[in-house]
Design goal:
Number of domains: 1
Helix content: over 70%
Shape: globular
Number of strands: 0
Oligomer: single chain
Strand content: under 5%
Structural class: mainly alpha
Largest sheet: none
Number of helices: 7
């Protein structure tokens, strides 16, 4: 029996693939496409009870505006934003901040919502924020975080009945590998240790 087509999910699928494809190629247009994608998934996740992921879209919108500004500024004569490694000092605050965000959000979702997957929703939300922040700064390790997130998201979305979104995250996983390779190649070309 055919399922109902959710056009919000279809739009999210198409804009999501285009967003990550542009991001892997370091095109500034990834940011406005990503903002449209975030709006679609804000609606979709709110309707399906993935409240952490819905709230995450609001944070993505904020980070997307920052990323767009940061990348656009560098392409219009500001200081050039280049692909870089994540400094040890950054990891020292990013790892505990991500863990604390996951724990706090997990508690909130379990206590105050009807989420059926509060822990997984919280972990993927916290990791996704860390990855997005890293991509706003063009940090190559952000691709590794996204790869981990996608490996968690695929079965989570299957479980929640979002088959098209699960397929999208499978495509994201492949695009993350492409992005990781491209950004690592740029690091090598610029003389940094990859």
């Amino acid at each position: 029996m055919p399922q109902h087509i959710d056009w919000t999910e279809v739009f999210g699928f198409v804009s999501g693939v285009l967003n990550v494809w542009l991001l892997a190629r370091q095109k500034v247009w990834n940011w406005p496409v990503g903002l449209a994608n975030n709006a679609a998934y804000l609606i979709l996740f709110g309707r399906t009870g993935l409240y952490g992921d819905a709230g995450l879209q609001l944070l993505y919108i904020t980070l997307g505006i920052y990323g767009w500004w940061s990348w656009a500024r560098s392409s219009t004569g500001g200081t050039e934003l280049r692909v870089a490694r994540t400094a040890a000092a950054t990891w020292r605050w990013l790892i505990p901040a991500t863990a604390m965000a996951a724990l706090g959000l997990s508690f909130f979702l379990a206590r105050f919502t009807d989420s059926t997957v509060p822990r997984w929703d919280a972990v993927t939300t916290a990791l996704s924020l860390a990855a997005t922040w890293g991509q706003c700064r063009k940090l190559v390790e952000s691709w590794w975080i996204w790869i981990l997130v996608d490996v968690i998201y695929i079965p989570l979305y299957v479980y929640k009945g979002l088959a098209l979104t699960a397929v999208l995250y499978g495509i994201f996983l492949a695009l993350c590998i492409v992005g990781l390779r491209a950004w690592t190649a740029e690091l090598r070309a610029s003389g940094q240790r990859a």
